[in-house]
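Issue 218. Parser rejects a valid record. Input:
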Amino acid sequence: MSTREKVIGQSIRRLEDARFLLGEGRYVADIDVAGQAYGHVLRSPHAHARIRRVDIAAAVASPGVRRVYLASDLASLGPMPCLAAVKPLDGPERRALAATTVRHVGDAVAFVVADTADQARDSAESIEVEYEALPAITDPLASTETSFHVRKGDHDAVARIFETAAHVVEVAPLNNRLVIAPIEPRAGIASYDPASDTMELLLTGQGLHGIRRQLAEFVFRTPLERFYLHAPDVGGGFGMKNFLYPEWILLLWAARDLGRPVKWVADRAEEFTMGAQGRDIAATARLALDKDGRFLAMDIAMVANMGAYLSGNGPGASAVAASTAHGGVYDIPAISVDVRGVFTHQVPIDAYRGAGKPEANYITECAIEAAARQLGRDAADLRRQNLIAAFPHKTAMGLTIDSGGFIGNLDAAVVRADRAGFEARRAEAKARGRLLGQGVACFLETSRGAPNEGAEIQFEADGRVMISTGTESNGQGHETSFTQIAADRLGLPMESFRFVQADTRLVKSGSGHGGARSMHMAGAALVKAIDAALAKARTAAAGLLQATESELDFADGRFSVRGPNGEGSGRGIDLLALAAESATPLGGHVMNITDVFTFPSGCHVAEVEIDPDTGGTSLVRYTAVDDYGTLINPVLTVGQVQGGVAQGIGQAMIERTLYDPESGQLSTGSFMDYALPRADDFPNFDIELIERPTLANPLGVKGSGQAGCIAAPQTIMAAILDALRPAGVTQLDMPATPERVWRALHLD
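Output the parser choked on:
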């Protein structure tokens, strides 16, 4: 019988925070390698142009310059791959450096390596490039260059249902393009070892094993074992650091060519014009209902702007991930989806927090909100009528939702948000000359990311236990939560463990972070690795204690022999002592082979107050009732939800990436023009977590990293439209900036 308090489920403060708060975090930009040179990328000022001539003579002759690379120097390298599971894929090849044509502002044209960063930057300014400007396309709906066209669902069945439906509602929601702005810009240091012919890349990255494979298999066409990638602390990623970028290729090529390390650190302007951007999907959706308001079918058509090139998983968000979440938490018998990916002369799109699930949920919830208005129904009541109530439930898109409490989530949220008292608050706001609105919306996450994941446990000579997983933290607190799992199952103090991640030499395999997969996929893998180690340990302990395995109990990190009366005999051995004595290593690497999804869900309620004279909109209340299954560390979960909600609020109210429609120039190219939400844009979030464990993994977890930004946009936009309803406003695109709100009230 264990006497230790369980560690899983405890709100333990992050182990990582001590070094972060003391300024001891270790980021790429802080690291220098002996003898390193510095790289700088010359980028296109045009959105679309032919490269007529490049003269690098002045740059080559500049002080400290070691080499200037053009596309011709890298001719032996392959193009950057797109690995999204979407066929057919078409479009321009993406190379580390553009050879004849640039396709977006910021496209890389030359790479300068010099003794100092200033020398590299200054010499790049002396490179003369003659461009022939070409027309730029910035409107995806006007693009004629199609990359892919995917159809999913039962289109014939949906068409038949719409022919006889009592009510049909149509909406045209737009998921606005967003700049992904983690606090740490991308950076890398590449080195080359001629003795072993290996290339090393230290980078601000997620998904290192995937990036390594792409570099080896597709670009350098070199055996995998010749590449070593590792990441120190990473200051945020939100998806964009999962992917292969031209700079990683340029750094490795230059380090091998020059025989010395090369470092590059992006400035914020480069991140705006070269780091992957997110969302950018225009959709039309129709919802069919019967005479009583029961949902019958949905038909969804999406145009996904891929930007200038296909990024590593660019089509995955719109054509793959979104299809798992269409219909959300609602019982909709038939759904059809048509997705067309198009090219424009803009920064390439890739996965951004939620990666398709925010877009799909937003489309569904916008249609339901419009249906409530058209039918004269209370929006919360219409949702409740159509929520999935029985489990397991097979969705129209083919997924089986194993468990949930969707009705309970909604009922709890509307009570917690005091929906009953809202009209009194609205009247009070009206007396002050303000418009108050409340929005209720639900969300469904389909959590898994890439299938399969590995984990390893090893007992080390110093008495500590090494645990490693193939997912990689960029702020989530993995060092704490994975250690909690290991400490709980092994009955050892948390200080007994050493956590290893983001290192392709030390971590045997991994699909990285993304898709809210870490606890579901890697946590389950770690449980399996621990169970395998304990099975080996039980056999070893039985031999040392001269007992059968069935006579052994394991608790609090110790194997004990059970006496004839079921009580302890006094004979036993501590696990760490056993590991030290065992001739055979007790640890090992285990793969968790599974492609099963989990389904985090919830209901959120927002209240907004609008000043009709200025269009200024304030978020005054925000309530969330969410189900993430078993909570490993509740305070970390709440932090993840708060961060996601904040990013969803940014999309709904503030953030918008704009390009000049004629020139293709990025109009919002810095934080002077692109607004991020600040702390004073948020109310105190009221968050309730309901634990409904899943059987999809041994921990019962469902994943929480993306949920907030999946839920917030539709909730806030519903609240804004509710506030604007007396003025007859029925449609408004994100972001609901003061200008847009004012125009909707006074001009539209």
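Fixed in the parser; the record now loads. Residues 277-447+597-746 form a domain with the Aldehyde Oxidoreductase; domain 4 fold (CATH 3.30.365.10).
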